Amino acid sequence: MSDKVTRVGLTAKRGLDAAADVLADLAKWLDARGAAAVFDAETAKLAGVPTGRATVSRDDLPSQCDLVVVLGGDGTLIGMAGRIARAGSDVPILGVNFGSLGFLTEITLPELHSALEAILTGRATLEPRQMLAARTMRQNAPFADHIVLNDIVITKGALARIIEIAVAVGDLPVSRFRADGLIIATPTGSTAYNLAAGGPIVHPAVDAIILTPIAPHTLTHRPVVIPASSEVHVRPIIEGNDVFVTFDGQAGYALQPGDLVSVRRAARPLRIVKSATRTYFEILREKLKWGADFVTPPVPTITRR
């Protein structure tokens, strides 16, 4: 990371009282190193910042700093990722986990100061994470736009029957899925709802989009991984059923007959500050309880003849 960091945005999960002392300490730590702490209004109140100190809204935070530090869990980071995308910003984000290690908030509290020190001295590694841009068309006009880090999910209502969903990639029809719904996920989102629905885990460095039907009526309907350069068009066949679309589990609405949801790779990736102490596969092993007694096998020596 070569960008000069002089203003660090601090934001925490709403109501996370355990973060109050950490935030106050962090502001002092940054001030001592010549970097100004920028609080959103809710986080400033949580941290006990004196009345009168300038704050910004959460939506404005990405445009007011050189780095955003998020204290909370993956959901808190995903919310800020959406704000960064809507602001058209390239500001990097550092996720600090409170509780169990997250897939995205992979920096632990004991690692926080060393991670920030690496950022301020230009030694940190940033990992780009692909995002998806979705547009819903209604009556041949744009109805809503969203940018997601994890997934777009089209699903039936709680009391609805199986729904039918027509899917095309570009101009090429893929299938008409009869299922409980469809997940359109990024590689980052492959370990979220996609994984629970039986979709594949895709390394975040892979440039791809994942299409995973939810509980398909036809067992031959399987998840499909397509190039990230593709544009996906999804049209639910709504016949007396409630059908909803949600974006990263944070926003959504009911779809109407004739609605078309189109999804493509977003113009900008999210830049995440990587942990210097663990790899992606270590996080998978910890979160998914793979091989608790795992020992790295020795790399064989190849003798050339």
Q: Summarize this, please?
A:
This protein is an alpha+beta fold and 305 residues long. It has helices at residues 20-31, 41-47, 74-86, 112-120, 193-196, 280-288, and strands spanning 7-12, 36-39, 67-72, 93-97, 126-129, 132-138, 141-148, 151-156, 163-169, 172-179, 181-185, 208-214, 224-227, 232-237, 243-247, 251-254, 260-265, 270-273.
Written account of the structure:
The protein has 305 residues and is α+β, with helices and mostly antiparallel strands. It folds into 2 domains: 7-124 and 275-288, 3-Layer(aba) Sandwich (Rossmann fold); 132-265, Sandwich (Tumour Suppressor Smad4), CATH 2.60.200.30. Helix content is 18%, strand content 33%. It contains 6 helices and 18 strands. The protein has helices at 20-31, 41-47, 74-86, 112-120, 193-196, 280-288, and strands at residues 7-12, 36-39, 67-72, 93-97, 126-129, 132-138, 141-148, 151-156, 163-169, 172-179, 181-185, 208-214, 224-227, 232-237, 243-247, 251-254, 260-265, 270-273. The strands form 4 sheets. Strands 7-6-17-14-9-10 form a 6-stranded antiparallel β-sheet. The protein has a 6-stranded antiparallel β-sheet with strand order 13-12-11-8-15-16, with no helix packed on it. The longest helix has 13 residues, at 74-86. The protein is globular and about 60 Å long. The two termini are 42 Å apart. The mean pLDDT is 91.
